[in-house]
Automatic annotation (TrEMBL):
Residues 686-696 have a biased composition (Basic and acidic residues). Belongs to the GDA1/CD39 NTPase family. It comes from the Eukaryota. Residues 668-696 are annotated as: Disordered. This is Nucleoside phosphatase family-domain-containing protein. One of its GO terms (molecular function) is ATP binding. InterPro entries: GDA1_CD39_NTPase (IPR000407).
Length: 696
């Protein structure tokens, strides 16, 4: 067993699936190397950019053909993970596939079919630790995705481990989290004390555990807006254009001037690479770019649906309740589309630049008002970097307008560069460079990596899982996980690994029987095979002795069993070679008096012949096979069964009997096993008395 623990998370998004591999020190190893400060910190999770791999499209595209999701999609991702994880650690490595917005849109039956195929394929082709498919392979709610992202952001920024270095005022030391994908958007933050008390029922209780077992508790507000991701918002926007006009040619201010794009009836943009026949079959109309970005901002604003009724005030967008955000203490970081849209084109060469609304909008306006021909030439010359292709350039103007509307008109982030903060702080005088050095204290900052680690919600999932493996510091400490904001363990509490262990043992037996019960049958099969091989090697006599010793405490006393039970051999007896012996003697019976030369041991008539008896009053047969062995008297008055002289041995049947003599005379088969343990009939008092009487 190595010093590292590994974990694999598959982020199954709407546009593709990405595998993330993480590792961390086992708790006993982490304690050995940890300083005082580190002992009060969460486990150190490591990853590498080479440990990630993404493929397209998402698993939601397999809804109508779920049997293909394994060989056509998962195979590449799981193979990649198996190359990075030591072979001996694979059975101990948990595997999670957590699907997000793309799968949430699928019908329930298709969801379940795809998830079942994912689990079956992973179990049949790999040995990853996958004890509970309902937990390890699932479609997670947007709220859970947002909470994992909040954990990851604060983990990387140090809000958990060093709260004194992240004092934002009013006793606040954590950061808010914003995420936007193709189909949904999430927000997660810890409200200030006033709002937290006012909206306590709306918060999620989160419990973590540091390396030394100290529990951490946080109360976080999390919500998701399904349909508010960039792709879904774009689709809603195009459908609104189609409904507002009867013409097949629709002017679109969110496209660069001169660009023409075909769209379907449901608002989907047809890829520029689609062939002409596909465009004719599917296209309902085509958009013609006008390159008027200010008008684009105006037309995307209604997509926020701020006019919807707010049943539980306050609300932000779509009529959904969100506690009031105090931007003096709530500083947000944004990932995914917040980063890609603000940096991949407009911030080239300014990777550490803080988000500045005024500067950002100026750069977007400059790009989007250009003619498409000029933009195409810039792409060929890699004016905006090698990652910018025509598809990204075609989409970025709408995405930028949607990001700006979501941040400032939707969530209410102050327009840094134009507006001041609610407390009157003026932030219009300078552009905020080197956001890392500033401690991410702007109201909003788009990020991709922090300390060279990608900020992904999958990291938050693994931090939670690694934290749950740490032993409790005290018996009254509560489990790691999250649920409703209630004392104790709420009914909806979710454990990171499904089963909560009160302690972690370094014992291999504990890991076998408690942590990995599915390995128990294989373990006992291995023990059986080992014992079987050893039994063959040591031989029959030693097997008999060992069996007698092992069964000694349970052996019944002689004379207790019915005869038919005593004469039967058990499976174990057959396996070990116990029971009736196959050694026989032929005895000369030509003499009519020969029958008198045989005498059954009288002890047999008085006691039981239990093969394995070892009772306190003792059996003179030891490990005999049931029938006592008769003894034959020779002419000299001796007995074949007891003779020790060379002369008698030469006559004794089975101990040197002449072969010719043996073949020409009839005989009686006699059991000879354990001959040395039998009491010779010659020593019987009755026989001696009879002979003395005749002699006299």
């Amino acid at each position: 067993m190595g010093k590292w623990r590994y974990g694999v998370v598959l982020d199954a998004g709407s546009s593709g699936t990405r595998v993330h591999i993480y590792r961390w020190l086992r708790n006993n190893k982490a304690k050995e190397k940890a300083s005082g400060v580190q002992l009060h910190s969460l486990p150190v999770i490591e990853t590498d950019k080479k440990w990630t791999k993404k493929i397209h499209p998402g698993i939601s595209t397999f809804g109508e053909r779920p049997h293909d999701v394994g060989p056509e999609h998962l195979d590449k991702l799981l193979s990649h993970a198996l190359k990075k994880i030591p072979l001996e650690e694979v059975p101990n490595t948990p595997l999670f596939l957590l699907a997000t917005a793309g799968m949430r849109i699928l019908p329930s039956l298709q969801q379940q079919s795809v998830l079942k195929e994912v689990c079956d394929f992973a179990r049949s082709t790999t040995q990853f630790h996958l004890p509970d498919c309902d937990l390890h392979v699932q479609v997670i709610p947007g709220e859970t995705e947002g909470l994992y992202g909040w954990i990851a952001a604060n983990y990387l920024l140090g809000g958990f481990d060093q709260p004194d270095k992240h004092d934002h005022g009013k006793g606040h030391n954590t950061y808010g989290f914003l995420d936007m994908g193709g189909a949904s958007a999430q927000i997660a933050f810890a409200p200030n004390a006033t709002e937290a008390e006012k909206h306590a029922n709306d918060l999620t209780l989160l419990r973590l555990r540091t390396i030394d077992g100290t529990p951490l508790e946080h109360r976080v507000f999390v919500t998701t807006w399904l349909g508010f991701g960039v792709n879904q918002a774009r689709q809603r926007y195009v459908k609104a254009l189609l409904e507002s006009s009867t013409s097949d040619e629709l002017p679109d201010p969110c496209l660069p001037a001169g660009l023409k794009v075909d769209v379907t009836k449901d608002g989907t943009l047809l890829d520029g690479k689609a062939d002409e026949d596909e465009k004719v079959d599917k296209a309902a109309a085509h958009l013609v770019g006008t390159g008027k970005f200010s008008e684009c901002l105006h037309q995307t604003f209604p997509l926020l649906e701020k006019e919807k009724e707010c049943a539980d005030s306050p609300c932000l967008i779509n009529g959904q309740h969100v506690p009031a955000i105090d931007f003096n203490v709530n500083h947000f970081v944004g990932v995914s589309e917040y980063w890609h849209t603000t940096h991949e084109i407009f911030e080239k060469g300014h990777k550490d630049k803080a988000y500045d609304f005024k500067t950002y909008q100026e750069r977007v306006n400059e790009f989007c008002t250009q003619d498409w021909d000029k933009i195409s030439q810039g792409i060929e010359k890699e004016k905006w970097g090698g990652k910018v292709d025509e598809e990204k350039a075609r989409e970025v103007c709408f995405k930028a307008s949607w990001i700006i509307n979501m941040l400032h008109d939707g969530i209410g982030v102050p327009r840094v560069g134009i507006e001041g903060l609610p407390d009157g702080t003026n932030v219009t005088k300078k552009v905020h460079d080197k956001a890392k050095a500033k401690g991410f204290l702007d109201p909003f900052q788009a990020v991709n990596k922090i300390n060279d680690v990608e900020l992904s919600w999958t990291l938050g999932k693994m931090v939670l899982y690694a934290s749950s493996e740490i032993p409790l510091a005290s018996e009254d400490a509560l489990a790691v996980g999250f649920g409703s904001n209630e004392p104790g363990i709420p009914k909806d509490f979710q454990y990171p690994g499904g089963i909560f262990h009160h302690y972690e043992s370094a014992s291999n037996w504990h890991r076998l029987f408690i942590e990995n019960p599915r390995r128990i049958p294989a373990f006992f099969l291995m023990i059986f095979i080992f014992c079987f091989i050893i039994g063959i090697i040591i031989g029959k006599e030693r097997r008999v002795r060992i069996w007698a010793y092992v069964t000694k405490p349970w052996t019944r006393k002689i004379g207790k069993d019915p005869l038919h039970r005593r004469r039967e051999r058990s499976f174990a007896a057959k396996l070990l070679g116990l029971g009736r012996s196959q050694d026989y003697e032929r005895v000369d019976l030509e003499n009519p008096d020969a029958s008198n030369d045989f005498e059954l041991e009288e002890t047999y008539l008085e006691t039981s012949d239990n093969e394995h008896s070892d009772s306190s009053d003792g059996s003179r047969f030891g490990l005999t096979s049931g029938w006592a062995t008769p003894a034959a008297k020779n002419d000299a008055g001796g007995y074949f069964g007891t003779a020790v002289s060379g002369e008698v041995l030469s006559q004794g049947v089975g101990l040197g009997l002449n072969l010719h003599s043996t073949l020409n005379r009839g005989g009686l088969l006699s059991r000879t096993e354990s001959r040395e343990r039998m009491r010779s009939p010659a020593n019987s008092p009755k026989r001696r008395e009879g002979r003395w009487t005749q002699d006299e």
